[in-house]
Every structure is written in structure tokens, then in C-alpha cells.
Amino acid sequence: MRMNHKAAQRLAAAWVRLWGCLLICLLLAAPAMAGHGHDKADKTGILLVAFGTSVPEARPALEAMDTAVAKAFPKTPVFWAYTSNIIRHKIRDEEGRHIDSPAEALARMMDQGFTKVAVQSLHTIPGEEFHGLLATARAFEGMPKGMRRISVGAPMLATAGDCERAAKALLASVPSQRKPGEAVVFMGHGTPHPANIYYPGMQYYLDKLDADALVGTVEGTPSLDDVLAELKARKIATAWLLPFMSVAGDHARNDMAGDEPDSWKSILQAAGIQCRPVLKGTAEDPALAAIWVDHLREALNHL
């Protein structure tokens, strides 16, 4: 069938009008479509991340940390996660309680509509656990329909200023019953990660304040052998043992203060050095907890 010239013009004009209407509709809808899922009001939350502990007696340290954060940021909801798979599974199997991993906690917060999250590491040094936490946070930031911004607060020790501040707070936490000439030994965890250098760094700042304050680690450097050699060289008769960890958990109660022959207390006492263990995690001390709180404040400011 052939179409005359005027009919063809009318058909072409109709198509132009139709496409014009469609284009206008798309342009009007574009702002709404572009903002879909991204124009919701900001909702900010805090995620506190510790290595974790399965020792009930050690949990007051984390409870004290939770209280300190809630006091500093009363209007911001606080969530928790543990980085240790072993500890989370042990709590699940022995107590029937579920503790989130950092990924689970961030997914939960994302599902609840949080758009900005400050993740605060409660680790002591920026070692393997901290860098794993950083990688997890980066994976969640910018996820479709997820968080717009995630900021990770530094662990206790990140700068020279942190080390100097921590050294003063650690010495102030030693019981007042310590007498002149008695040593104090702070037990850190230690790691094969390059961040282990923070422990010798802490020794530098402690040396400036107290000649008989020493740092040792369970799995790094300085070792117990290094500490024992120093105590013998100084002819120390009594040493106070304190954990340089956020909680006084398994390492503090068994490796440091236990009665087994291979504990720090037993080894030092076998060498003729009387030991006085103190089972108190660094998170229980307000001056040390304040370092983490200040790092969290910085993380919130970066959101």
C-alpha cells in the first residue's frame, strides 16, 4: 500500500510528538531515579572492634570501653565485633552466644540503614588484625545501597605521640604499693608483622620515664629472655607483671601469671625474682582508654 505525501508528513509529525513526550518524561524522572537509595537521611554509627576474649573475668575491660564510648558519643549507636575467629567460635560453642565478625557487623549496620560508620580498632598496634580490619572496611564502603563513608580509627599506638602518652599512662597504672628498686614488666602480645617495632618503641619512651620499666612480648621482640636478662643485669629482686593488652585474658592469666612451669611468673621466680602479677587490661584504665576514644573522635570527624 502506497502512502501519499501529506499522510507521510502527518505520520512523521506524530512520531516526533510521541518521542518528545517520552523524552520529557525521562528527563523529569531522572532526578528521582538518580537519587534512589542515595537521598536518604544520614545515619551514623560506631563499630568497636576488639580481638576478643573468651575469658568472662576479662570482659569488664571491654564493658568499660563500651561505657567510655557511650559517654563520649551519647547520641551515636554502638555496635561490637571480634576479629578472632577462634574466640567467636569458642563463645558460640561454650556459651551459645553469637559475636559478630567485622564483616557481619558492617552487614548488619548496612541492613539497618547506617550510611556513615566509624570503625574503631581496639587493638594495641597496627598489626595483622588491624590491617585485616582495614581491608574489610574498604570492601564495604561505597557498596550499592550500602554505606557512603566508613572511617577506621587507629589502634592505641599509631604515632610517637601515642607511644609517649601510653608510656605515661602505663606507669601511672602500676599499683602504688610498688617500692623503689622494684621493676615493672608489661607483657604485650607480639607479632611477626613489621608493626612489632612498636614494642621496642614503647621501651624507648618508658626508659625516659622509669629505668626499671620493661616491655616484653609473648610472640615477638623483646622476648621474655630479653626481659630476664635485663632484670638479672639490674639485680632486680621483685617485678610487677602487667598485661599490655586491652583485656587480661588467656595470655595474662596463663602465660603471664599462671602457675605452670612455663609462665612468666614461674620462670622469673625460678630465677630468684619475686613476681607480683596485676590482672587488669589496658581498656580498664581510663587514661589508656582515652587514647582509643580520641582516635574514634578523629574517625567520626573524617566521616
User: Helix and strand string, N-terminal first?
Assistant: HEHEHHEHEHEHEHEHHEH
| Structural class designation | alpha/beta
Mean pLDDT: 90
Beta-strand content: 5-15%
Poorly predicted runs: 18-38
The CATH class of the largest domain, by name, is Alpha Beta
**Shape from CA axes?**
elongated
Description:
The protein is an alpha/beta fold and 303 residues long. The chain folds into two domains: 44-157 and 287-301, 3-Layer(aba) Sandwich (Rossmann fold); 160-280, Rossmann fold (3-Layer(aba) Sandwich). It is 47% helix and 15% strand. It has eleven helices and eight strands. It has helices at residues 5-34, 59-72, 85-95, 102-111, 128-140, 160-172, 198-207, 224-233, 250-256, 264-270, 286-301; strands spanning 44-50, 78-82, 116-121, 149-153, 183-188, 213-217, 238-243, 274-277. The chain has a four-stranded parallel sheet with strand order 2-1-3-4, with helices on both faces. A four-stranded parallel sheet has the order 6-5-7-8. The radius of gyration is 28 Å and the shape is elongated. Residues 18-38 have low confidence and may be disordered.
